[in-house]
């Protein structure tokens, strides 16, 4: 019975956040001020909803159930935003920087939530360092892809190609068609 209720709560959270992401209109045309503001507002709504969920769930769920449930919700969030951004078929130079900024905004504003998911057995203060990001990438593969997308949006064609050839992008979860479409969106006039 409890699993059914938790499952409904997770689905409700995913649906609510999905509606907030819908307000970004696919993150299209963020180089135009009104589109950027809509996308930014959507990201801020997503962060607000996730923080409310964190506060509620962290206080009533066991640690393992909380982590599993929150990772499920976050996985769907990062997958959806990444997918929407990768579906943009033409990006102005300024737009790539705006999209990168939106990704960074989400990551920065979710730092307390991320820290609530990592193990910290020694009682020390947690902060987002390389080890923490590595641990988060392990439990949230879509986060790794989301973070890598931010890097790709500011890379040269040569650097993106090198990342693909090294296998780094595959490790982050990118498909060849996603990389090809991203390159076309950024570099083809």
UniProtKB/TrEMBL annotation:
It comes from the Eukaryota. It holds the Pfam family ZW10_C2. GO terms for biological process: endoplasmic reticulum to Golgi vesicle-mediated transport; mitotic spindle assembly checkpoint signaling. InterPro entries: Zw10/DSL1_C_sf, ZW10_C_2. Residues 42-189 form the ZW10 C-terminal helical domain. One of its GO terms (cellular component) is RZZ complex. This is ZW10 C-terminal helical domain-containing protein.
